[in-house]
Structures are given as structure tokens and as C-alpha cells.
Amino acid sequence: MTDIFSTEKRSDIMSKIRSKGTKPEIKLRKALYARGFRYRTNDKRLPGTPDIVLPKYGTVIFVNGCFWHHHPGCKIATTPKSNTEFWQTKIKRNRQRDLENYWKLGELGWEVIVVWECELSHAHDADSVAEKLAERLHKKLHPQPRPYEIPEDPEIGIAAENETKYGE
User: Fold this and answer.
1) What is the C-alpha separation between 47 and 79, in angstroms, rounded?
2) Dihedral of the CA atoms 96, 98, 104, 108 (nearest 10)?
3) Which helix (H) or strand (E) holds 135?
4) Mean pLDDT, to the nearest integer, of 29-44?
5) Which of 9, 52, 79, 155 has the fewest other C-beta atoms within 10 Å?
6) 8 to each of 14, 51, 63, 91, 107, how far by Cα in Å?
7) How does pLDDT run across 77-125, given as a tens digit for each residue?
8) 3-state secondary structure of 56
9) How high is the pLDDT of residue 73?
């Protein structure tokens, strides 16, 4: 199947596809901001230039396009019928680069969260995703204490040596 656009027109169309400030990313940022979260965007100092960086929480968020990062099981993540080999190679490389960046960020102590484009496709979806993220981040900042179980066995915790009185 041939492209319906000329090479120049296709190049022009592809050049307008943004990697920063996409609609799904803006939706999520607005929803997070409305919940009081303050963040940095596209921090080039970090591997992969995360879309949203929450330094206070040690967390980065990537808002991935389902097509470009091939979201498994998503109807948007289809391989084009023309120039299939090129697209398969490109998308495979995108996924490899993503995994490398996630690993590097983890090594630096960052928690990595990936939000997919299809999760933000409807207006209310950004709010529900932001609410789930808010719960997760709040738990990270304010962990609940876990109760300590006292063992039933009274022998545990007794020193191996016999007790000696002072001065004897």
C-alpha cells in the first residue's frame, strides 16, 4: 500500500508530531496540579527526559503514546500496513530505550510510573488517573506504620550467658 501523501507532505506532517506538551500529558498535568502537586516537566538532566518529575516524591511519570511505545493489548497500538519492517524496528527500539531509561532512573533512586495515552482518552479519565496517582504518592510520603508482632516464645531475647551480680 502506498502513502496517500507525497514524501514532502508526509515529512511535514510527521514534523508536527510533538514529543512534549501532548494533549494527554497536559490533561494529566492539569489534574495533578488541581490536587496540589507541583512538578517539573521534561527534565533533561534525567535519563529519558521524563514528562513529569515530582522531586518531593522521588517519582517520575512518563505519558506514553500507545502507538509510539506499543502499549500491549491496546487498539491504538497497531503496526501500519505500509513500510511494516521500518515501523516494527522503530517501535521495538522505542521500547528498548524506554526500558533502559526506566532501569537507569531506578538505579538513581527514582520511582518510574508509566501512564498510557488510552488511559487519558476521555475528559474524566485524567481525573481518575490523577486520583490514583495522588493516593500512591501520598502513601509514599506518609507510609502507614506496620504493627510489630511480639513473639510468643519467652526464650527469645534472653542472653546466652548467665546473669552475674555486680561486685561478685
Assistant:
1) 27
2) -170
3) helix 123-141
4) 94
5) 155
6) 10, 30, 29, 23, 42
7) 888 888 889 889 999 999 999 999 999 999 999 999 999 999 998 767 8
8) helix
9) 87
What span, in angstroms and rounded, lies between the C-alpha atoms of 90 and 107? 26
Any idea which residue has 485524567 for its cell? 126
Identify the pLDDT of residue 8.
Answer: 76
> Which three-class secondary structure string do you get for 75-123?
CCCCCCCCCHHHHHHHHHHHHHHHHHHHHHHHHCCCEEEEEEHHHHCCH
pTM for this prediction? 0.73
Domains in the chain, start-ordered, CATH in brackets?
17-135 (3.40.960.10)
Tell which residue, 56, 19, 59, 22, has the closest CA to residue 36: 56
pLDDT tens track for 47-81: 999 999 999 999 999 999 998 888 988 888 888 88
* Dist. CA 44–CA 17, nearest whole Å: 19
8 Å CB contact between 79 and 91: yes
Helix (H, G, I), strand (E, B) or coil at 68: coil
Side by side, the strands of the sheet bearing 111-116 are 40-41, 52-54, 59-64, 111-116
